[in-house]
Amino acid sequence: MARKFLYFIAFCIVLFLAGRLALAFYPEQLTRLSFTPGGQFEAQPPLAENAYADPALWYARPGMTGTNPVQWKPDGFAAADAPVDAAVFFVHPTSYLKKDHWNAPLDDADATRIGEAMVRANASVFSASADVWAPRYRQATFGAFVTDAPEARQAHDLAYGDVARAFDAFIAAQPEGRPIVLAGHSQGAFILKRLLAEKIAGTPLANRIAAAYIVGWLVDQETELTAMGLPACAGPDQSGCVISYLSFADQADTAMMRTSYERFAGARPAGAPAPRYLCSNPLTGGIGGAAPASANPGTIVPDEKLEKGKLTPALAAAACAADGTLRIGEGPDLGPFVLPGGNYHVYDYVLFWSALRQDFARRVGAWRTAR
Q: Is the pLDDT of residue 33 over 70?
């Protein structure tokens, strides 16, 4: 019996090592196999026009009962924020990881739990405003971002339709002329790029955008900024502009990430130059450049459940690399959700939590000064 047990342990070790080796050589193929749904896309009707009048379709909004995740604060946060008078529309990242459907059911308990954790960690950057809105939506599953299958684009369209409807409800609740901040992460940022291009660019709403935080998704400076109708934020006191970056350790390999993001950028015209991605520096407020970890006023170090966290200064640097990604140094120990290869995607907001709070207040103030 003991010998059989040792054989079993040896088999498990070999299987584990083989899995690690396969992941090292075939990461994209294994990711696609593990997460892409095998079934057909399930066409679903749009939500009712007044669907987002239901408070249950929001993770956060003004006047909600119970605990508002946006108002969460990490341990060690002692600053007395001056209120920021702006309305914030925040679109959370992918929290549906299953293969059962191409889009998350609104009643999926796991997606809801993870989504609320993401709103708590990320949208809390904007809690100096009492007017932060974060909708629930039938987001595309994670597997819809690692495949070229036509079902993936159908899933993206369904998710976008929900967010666009939520945005209409958000705008309808705002007084004329009030500044607006758009913010999202990962899938949420992907959706906001389209929202800016289709519902805001070239309209009076564009003049009300104090800032757009398109974090955790690539933004091509040559084509996408033009479509979105806003310039990149070239300095810390500029308003009406876009902030975008993706966080990696210094030695990270970003090839798989860039291939995945470019999958949905559309075909480039023959002879077009290579994309030039925007890398905003969250520690300087400008484009490119470098800032040491000592310039970082606070990173949240979360617990394993992403429920609590401690604010720690001088933990992550910020330097833009030639490939358009943001490099943070060797990379702090933030827990088990650092992705393979030094990819800090999950932590894009919490790495620079305090700096982004300051950036938010400064850009809204600059918008008001310019008016």
A: no
Query: Rounded distance, CA 51 to CA 348, Å?
Result: 31
Is the dihedral angle over the CA atoms 199, 202, 207, 211 positive or is it negative?
positive
Give a yes or no: residue 347 inside a domain: yes
Whole-number Å distance between alpha carbons of 274 and 212: 24
The boundaries of the domain holding residue 292 are 42-264+274-370
Q: Give the whole-angstrom CA distance, residue 175 versus residue 290.
A: 39
Does residue 22 lie within any of the structural domains? no
- Determine contact, residues 225/353, Cβ cutoff 8 Å: no
Asked if 70 and 103 touch (Cβ cutoff 8 Å), the reply is: no
Nearest to residue 134, comparing CAs of 118, 112, 119, 156? 119
Evaluate whether residue 17 is within a structural domain: no
Cα separation, 277 vs 36, whole angstroms:
27
Question: 142 near 23, Cβ under 8 Å?
Answer: no
In a domain, 12, yes or no: no
pLDDT digits (tens, 9 = 90+) for 305-324: 767 899 999 999 999 999 99
Contact yes or no for 244/233 (Cβ under 8 A): no
Rounded Cα gap, residues 232 and 194, in angstroms = 16
CA 357 – CA 128 distance, rounded (Å): 8
Alpha-carbon distance of 204 to 34, in angstroms, equals: 44
- Asked whether the predicted pLDDT for residue 279 surpasses 90, the reply is yes
Instruction: Identify whether the C-beta of residue 95 lies closer than 8 Å to the C-beta of residue 139.
Output: yes
Contact, 350 vs 122, CB < 8 A?
yes
Q: How many Å separate Cα 168 from the centre of its chain?
A: 21
Cα–Cα distance for residue pair 2/261, rounded to 1 Å? 50
Please name the residues in contact with 12: beta carbons below 8 A apart, sequence gap of 6 or more.
none
Question: Could you give the number of structural domains in the chain?
Answer: 1
Separation of alpha carbons 81 and 69, rounded Å? 17
